[in-house]
Amino acid sequence: MSTAHVMLGLLSGGPRHGYDLKRAHDERLPQAKPLAFGQVYATLGRLERDGLVEQSGQDQESGPERTSYELTELGRERLDTWLTEVEPPAPYVTSALFNKVVVALIAAGADRAREYLTAQRAAHMARLRELTKVKITSGAPVGDVVAADYAIGHLDADLRWLETTLARVADLEKEVTA
């Protein structure tokens, strides 16, 4: 995820200050890692430096003075371009899950790899049950349901891989230790 592009998208509806951008991010991307305030303000600084946003005013509610930012024409063009670019599938396997299985085979053998795979499968199943509850909760925000659908799809793929890998541990051990 490009934090800068998400911030541009959040600003597409009109001017906002940093605190409001952080809150909107955390509400609209409910399963994403929450943004730190420092990350919001550092990103706004880079976007302003690059001419993608500009200050649009100051307001002071019941706290410190806050600077609002809005998209520039260049910022809107950059956002539109980003929204039309297809994300390429990842070219490399960069998963902690995959890495742990290979390292378990190298460092501790097939039994340890099986133990890890079984424990990981149980953790995935528990998370799958949690996300399913989100989906069936009456009145759940659509953003939460869409995020749950996305996470469930990835968990399902991981679970299929875990099952396949459990069945192949003995063969993998032969290759890794050869």
What does this entry show, briefly?
This protein is mainly alpha-helical and 178 residues long.
Strand content: 5-15%
Number of helices: 7
Which percent bin holds the helix content?
A: 55-70%
The top-level CATH class of the largest domain is Mainly Alpha
Widest sheet: strand ordering:
1-3-2
Tally the structural domains: 2
**CATH topology term of the largest domain:** Arc Repressor Mutant, subunit A
CATH homologous superfamily of the largest domain - what is it? Winged helix-like DNA-binding domain superfamily/Winged helix DNA-binding domain
Describe the protein's architecture and organization.
With 178 residues, this protein is mainly alpha-helical. The protein has two domains: 3-84, Orthogonal Bundle (Arc Repressor Mutant, subunit A); 96-177. It is 68% helix and 8% strand. It has seven helices and three strands; from the N terminus they run H-E-H-H-E-E-H-H-H-H. The chain has helices spanning 3-11, 18-28, 37-49, 73-84, 96-108, 110-136, 142-177; strands at residues 16-17, 53-59, 66-71. The protein has a three-stranded antiparallel β-sheet. Helix 2 (18-28) crosses helix 3 (37-49), helix 5 (96-108) runs antiparallel to helix 6 (110-136) and helix 6 runs antiparallel to helix 7 (142-177). The longest helix has 36 residues, at 142-177. It is elongated, with a radius of gyration of 22 Å. The mean pLDDT is 86.
